[in-house]
Design brief:
Chain lengths: 341, 341
DNA sequence: TTGTACGCGTTATCAA
DNA sequence: TTGATAACGCGTACAA
């Protein structure tokens, strides 16, 4: 903390009371313009910077929002953060940023610290290791507004902003089906995570609605990363023998990149032999060859909406709890081709 | 801010003084274990969360660091932020994050707000529109530690952590020269920015040390982005006629991507006809075809070192001001080939 | 071991 | 228009 020049010093310097200084600085009407001028001058001369801590203590309001994300170096999350920052800035709030590194304890300690710093509200994307929701229940019970985003906890009285994973997965699967594909592999995410479940469910539903029987060997868990996609694709090649899928639907773009690599190594071509789609519109999706057809998640908008909702909760205790779904968007590029009949 | 349970409430609840509660909670030795037990129980029951504002106000210490970056959605900066976060976490500091969107006014207001929140120190990467350093001078004079990173202001009493752009540019130019290239184009950044200047200087120095005469028409300002690289490369094709460069050195990876596109469109091949190198090791550099040889900037480490230095300044007022240079690293991939003799 | 008084910097309230 | 005092929540210093 820096050197201390307080309104008291200014008051003494000018031989007036601290209240007059306070009023002058807060542009209250009832202060002589001449006095105000002297105060402003003294403030400049002494290099006075108001102390928000004292203000916050007295007013029980910090104009600060706590943000907790599992990872910062993840394009989805930093775009979300960017959206949050934008709203916060425009509404006069500051951000306290923490990342949990997907660790439940670290997340809990972050929440506790933020609460003790008396942030006005909390924006959190829950680490996937979190099992115990009691800290959130306590915080919410204490009256601190919480809005979850992407990774939500439902049923504990907090609003939530998320992306419609299920519909997105369904839409991109339907796209493949519309191209004539019937034998579609799925590289899915861990079924312990809501996202992994939702995307697989969307995939299955699309098949079902089109009367395509799901093939067990074509659904392989790959995880969300590139290496997993690569291995999963190789497994499929190994297991299905000659009856190759004509298309592959991956749970996330990096997994799709891995799958593309495996396909190329098998001497096959994307999309001529096998079409591939991903999910998330990673920054690399348009640069790989062939560029990847995928589902865009409007991360920035998730941040905007979450921050808006939180501030609404902060500024109006009666703001209704809500589940906000941001629509995904199909991005068609060059990794798919009509299936041969 | 949440509902208020203070140590005073706990004291009343238990019929003891607030000091006993305070001592019990801070694990001071001189408090009866039985009393401590009762306090802990009451704390849990009432859902008490300590108020750091009050502590900070009294102790003039917030355990909070202010961070200001020009952009969040930039891989360099969010890796830096990630490094900062890691050190802050391990040392018990919180982060207040702001982005200036490269706007001088917004940056100034961020600094002012952070100062008024009484952060213990400031970590800032200066927006390239900033001309007036007086706010920084004022803050530093007031005794608040400031460490600049990447975009620094020198000579005003603050430490600085940056990457050795000049050496990096020189090294990658030397790499091209070692492959036998003599006719090397340079797509440079704006010469108003320190980074643009440093990288061009490194390029020129490498030529000079190898007795290669710089060719004016081969040095074209492209800016740091892809579109600029594309246009700049097309300009070069237009202007030099038959005497094409055998290699291109771009100020940043995106510019290199643009140049590669222009080269391909001209019916030439990378690296067979023209070698290309970039700078920054963008996440896409290894995915483009051919993968891009570039200079890696250890962004995460910049964050680590900057945060460490700042905390050192915070915790020891006599910590020496310092300019810390993080070494870049040549990353050789497949976008270069030996020049034909 | 426990309690009292005061200060941190500011605003709200009420009085002058 | 201006000022004195209490309050915000906590810890330090000193006293009991």
């Amino acid at each position: 903390m820096s050197k201390r020049v307080s309104i008291k010093n200014i008051a003494e310097e000018l031989g007036i009371s601290i209240m007059t200084v306070s009023r002058a600085l807060n542009n209250r009407p009832n202060v002589d313009e001449k006095t105000r001028g002297r105060v402003v001058e003294a403030v400049r001369r002494l290099g006075y910077i108001p102390n928000s801590l004292a203000v916050s203590l007295a007013q029980r309001k910090t104009y600060t929002i706590g943000v907790v994300v599992p990872e910062i170096t993840n394009s989805f999350f930093y775009h979300v953060i960017s959206g949050i920052e934008e709203i916060a800035y425009s509404q006069g709030y500051q951000l306290m940023l923490n990342h949990s590194a997907e660790d439940a304890n670290r997340e809990m300690s972050a929440i506790q610290t933020l609460a003790s710093k008396r942030v006005d509200g909390l924006l959190v994307s829950v680490a996937n290791t979190v099992k115990d929701y009691s800290i959130y229940k306590q915080i919410i019970k204490l009256g601190m507004p919480v809005v979850f985003f992407d990774r939500c906890i439902s049923g504990i009285g907090a609003s939530c902003v998320r992306v419609n994973d299920m519909e997105g997965a369904k839409a991109i699967t339907n796209y493949l089906i519309s191209l004539g594909h019937k034998r579609i592999a799925n590289l899915c995410g861990p079924q312990t995570s809501p996202i992994g479940r939702a995307r697989l469910e969307g995939f299955k539903e699309a098949l079902k609605e089109n009367n395509i029987k799901p093939v067990k060997e074509l659904v392989v868990e790959s995880g969300l990363r590139s290496a997993g996609g690569y291995e999963a694709m190789k497994n499929i090649f190994r297991q299905v023998g000659g009856k190759l899928p004509t298309a592959v639907c991956a749970v996330a773009d990096p997994a799709a990149f891995g799958a593309m690599k495996a396909i190329k190594e098998a001497g096959l071509k994307v999309p001529d032999d096998i079409s591939v789609v991903g999910f998330s519109d990673d920054i690399r999706a348009q640069l790989v060859f062939p560029s990847l057809t995928t589902v865009r998640q409007p991360a920035y908008e998730v941040g905007l909406r979450a921050a808006q909702k939180l501030i609404a909760h902060i500024e109006d205790k009666d703001e209704a709890e809500e589940e906000i779904i941001i629509k995904t968007e199909l991005v068609i590029r060059q990794s798919c081709k009509a299936a041969e009949r």
